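Example A, followed by Example B.
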Amino acid sequence: MRNNFQELERQEMEQRTVPAKIKNGVDAQVGFFQFIGSLFELYLPKMVDLFVHKMSSDSDNAPKKAQKRYPNK
């Protein structure tokens, strides 16, 4: 059994057209945001890990470096 409202919606969607200028603009914006999202997804976690590792290694290695320079102290 078919729903008449679903059939009406399908017919209206088939008849609806979007101007090419608007479609191209929307496609360009979506592509731009996908590109920015990909950059954040790829590089942001690595940058955060790098900063966290750098900050933790600087504080952890400071006494070790002094011990290496002066092993008899």
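Example B, a separate protein, is given below in the same form.
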Amino acid sequence: MSEQTRHVIVFESQPFWAPELQRQFLDDDVHVRTCRSINDLQQRLAKQTYDVCIIDLSADLPGVLRWLGDWQIRGSHTAILVIAAEEQKSLEWHVRELGASSFATEYVTGIQVAGMCRKQWNKTS
């Protein structure tokens, strides 16, 4: 990974991925922020550039889909990584068409999610 500071934002209804990613990136120059509402996500993304946005699709399925549609129209260099429940698997291609770089429905570990972030950084470096 390059020497620059990376910024990750996590949208989830309960703390899970944000604290896990903070643990995974302890030795890296990565700042992880969290938000609990689509409105908060929009405000934070308007104020700062993030390298990766991780979205728990279960946190607000209709809100996330609307936001992704709006986000795609505006265009952004922020990679969108979506983590969904198994029963949301049928939404994968719709979510990808709305701009998600990655979509996971199987159980993923914190190490794997951190790896997904690093993979995105390597694509943009």
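On Example B: The chain has five helices and five strands.
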